[in-house]
Amino acid sequence: MRSYELMWILSGDSTDSDGLASIDKFKALVASRGGEVKQAELWGRRTMAFPVKGRREGAYYVARFSVDGALAPEIEHAVNADQSILRHLMVLADELPEQPEQSATQTQSGTETVAPAPVR
To answer: Would you call 95 helix, strand, or coil by DSSP?
Structure first.
């Protein structure tokens, strides 16, 4: 079993119940492939740097899971086919820290924006 991390973005118009349904759908997908979801959570609603499918805001979700490496492409294909997901990224998490860090700042309106990356 290999460890992976998946981040996906739902439309900013999505409700909390849509987000919970998306997490449940992902957990069922991983379980059906013999994997285990270790952590799945909402990272918050954020303003994106550029429009994605005509949307300026999105609800960010992140999940850590373990699955057989040969089945990982099947999971990514199923996530890619989900029409409610604006964008996603799945990475091998064997060398990532246990708890992903959030690099966001809170604005006056309560909407989070992504902090710029440090310049090297």
So the answer is: coil
Q: Give the integer Cα–Cα distance in Å for 11 and 51.
A: 11
Which residues, in sequence order, are CB contacts of 95 under 8 Å at separation 6+?
none
The residue written with tokens 């979801």 in the block is 37
Which domains are seen in the chain, by residue range? Answer: 2-95 (3.30.70.60)
- Report pLDDT digits (tens) over 13-26: 888 899 999 999 99
pTM for this entry:
0.75
Residue 101, helix vs strand vs coil: coil
Residues 6 or more apart whose Cβ sits within 8 Å of residue 25? 82
DSSP 71: G
Q: Find out whether 45 and 59 touch, Cβ atoms under 8 Å.
A: yes
What local confidence, expressed as pLDDT, does residue 77 receive?
94
Mean pLDDT across the chain, nearest whole number? Answer: 84
CA distance 47 to 35: 32
Q: C-alpha angle with apex 43: 108 to 105, nearest 5 degrees?
A: 30
